[in-house]
Fold:
Amino acid sequence: MEAVYATFFENFGMEPLRLDVGGPFFGRGILTMGGPFWEHSRALIRPTFSRTRFANFKSLEMHVDRLMALIPGDGSTFDLQPLFRRLILDTSTEFIFGESCNSLASASSQEAQGFLQAFDDAVAGVGKRVMIGKLRHLIRDKKWEVACKTVHSYCDRYVAKILKEQGEPTSKQGTTTIEKWVLLQEMAKETQDPLDLRYQV
Structure:
């Protein structure tokens, strides 16, 4: 893994295999590109992997407590996988955008549930395109296209918000950067291209 994604990445071209298949959803980002563009993407994301970035255990505890509250207390059988998916979504959106979509909350919004479903449909659609191979251009998957658009719109809203905050005087900005580290905010210090930011996250 280290050789493919770090030390010898130039010897493992992902772009020809991934961009055409996953490009409509993932765009030009670290998951689909190679060469200098991949290096650019990796440079934007590299600070994420500092250990100090994962020190917000209070926030994680809140999301885990919500998950635990949804586990039946009567000993009945239940499916834990959907809850873990929602936990990952909640913690990831808070880390990336600075705000969780709170899909595990008791009063979870329709938007949160819609985003989760759209994300699942979009990823599943990429998988189908991989399996179909060269015939994928002959098939029009309207559900997949709508799912991609939904996820993109969700991300774009936060990108626009962050870029607006970046352009305001420091005194007018919120305290988010002081209280917690937000990936999108840090990326916006390096690039103000809305599409680039969308596809990097």
